[in-house]
Design a protein that fits this description.
about 30% helix, about 375 residues, alpha/beta, about 20% strand
């Protein structure tokens, strides 16, 4: 059988299954293992595979959230102690664990991979924890939290005339309205914008703090078609990083996202879905520009299978038509640390699985103010 239409790699690799937990403000009654296990069982059951039949396993998480070193070794209990597995871990969002697993399959060392990620943000102060991402000599000692840094980015966009507070509120309202059709979302429907967290960002412009987990299964070639009726082929994937210091870059633009998108082939053909990892409403403005998705629309789309959102950016290479941006609600509806980026890939893949999308772009970010960005293109077989 032939592979996907625009494959550019040695092997055709697809997302064949996706599962996620319900994302909750607190899961005090659950350990990380207990939170992850049902998700792993669900994603494997979707393919009919057993853990021993998976060629490679890779996870993404952060010891800083757990408050102990090598915390990821605990959740391996959720995978199973027997039979022995080929396993790896990345200390960041599961989207980068997926990238490692994809590379492993490209080398021919595995035909299938289980990728999972998780984060429990509820036990501590997330805003304080995230300061540990910053430059340890000049910035981290000042303890600027993620919301304060995002507010600097939002103000830069407003000063540049690229958005305003009402437009940011519209992004938040649309995202959470769309999340009404997502049973796993933490916030759904009408959510008040609330007071300023750090001006110009209000509570509604910021992501919820919560706990959650996600997992996907990757498979190569004809095996993918055996495991999934309509695989979501990864026809392009790339990630790039920018300067560590926010003061060393233009916060109104994301050249790393644009470069990753170019190398992933985003601009080669139209996309109909964009799952963007934009934890703050202002960051969606930056990502839309970098990916050529046009201006923000205030329309809402509560039916995730009916795409009537925003026009794709004319002249940017994404082509004519409409693009459903974050039909799942995105990170403004649920933002489990270390899993939200993988969820963007999973949500885009799930739309292809069920026939709601033919060509989707998925994005994940890490670091302050969109410092590091991963972009993937997923396509379904021609109908």
């Amino acid at each position: 059988m032939t592979g996907p239409r625009t494959s550019r790699y040695a092997r055709d690799v697809a997302v064949v299954a996706f599962a996620q937990s319900d994302h909750l403000r607190r899961t005090d009654e659950l350990s990380e293992v207990e939170m992850v296990m049902p998700v792993l069982h669900e994603v494997l059951a979707a393919t009919g595979l057993k853990a021993g039949e998976i060629g490679f396993t890779c996870s993404g998480s952060s010891d800083y959230l757990a408050g102990r070193a090598f915390s990821f070794t605990m959740t391996l209990d959720g995978v199973g102690a027997w039979p022995p597995i080929s396993e790896s871990h990345v200390e960041m969002d599961g989207a980068w664990a997926l990238y490692e697993a994809w590379v492993k399959i490209q080398t021919g060392e595995a035909d299938t991979a289980l990728v999972y990620s998780y984060g429990k943000s509820s036990p501590g102060s997330l805003r304080d924890v995230l300061t540990r991402q910053l430059d340890p000599y000049y910035l981290a000692p000042l303890w600027p939290d993620a919301v304060a840094l995002a507010a600097l980015q939002a103000q830069a966009l407003i000063d540049a005339g690229e958005t305003d507070e009402s437009a940011l509120a519209a992004i938040a309202a649309r995202s959470r309205a769309d999340a009404g059709a997502n049973p796993h979302a933490q916030l759904r429907g009408a959510v008040p914008q609330g007071d300023y967290e750090v001006r110009p960002l209000r509570t509604g412009d910021c992501p919820p703090v919560g706990d959650g987990a996600a997992a996907v299964v990757l498979a190569a070639g004809d095996l993918a078609r055996q495991l999934c009726e309509r695989p979501a082929w990864i026809t392009g994937i790339d990630h790039r990083i920018e300067a560590h210091g926010p003061g060393l870059r233009d916060l109104t633009d994301s050249p790393s996202t644009r470069t990753a998108a170019q190398h992933a082939g985003v601009f080669d053909a139209p996309v109909d879905t964009a799952e963007l990892h934009a934890p703050f409403s202002s960051q969606e403005v930056v990502l839309r520009k970098a990916l050529g998705l046009g201006d923000t629309d205030t329309d809402t789309d509560t039916d995730t299978d009916t795409d009537t959102e925003t026009g794709a950016g004319a002249g940017t290479g994404t082509g004519p038509g409409t693009v459903a941006v974050n039909p799942s609600g995105g990170a403004l509806a649920a933002n489990p640390m270390m899993a939200a980026g993988l969820i963007r890939i999973g949500e885009a893949a799930a739309r292809i699985h069920r026939g709601a999308s033919d060509r989707a772009v998925a994005h994940a970010t890490s670091g302050p103010c969109l410092q590091q960005n991963l972009v993937a293109v997923l396509e379904g077989d021609p109908r």
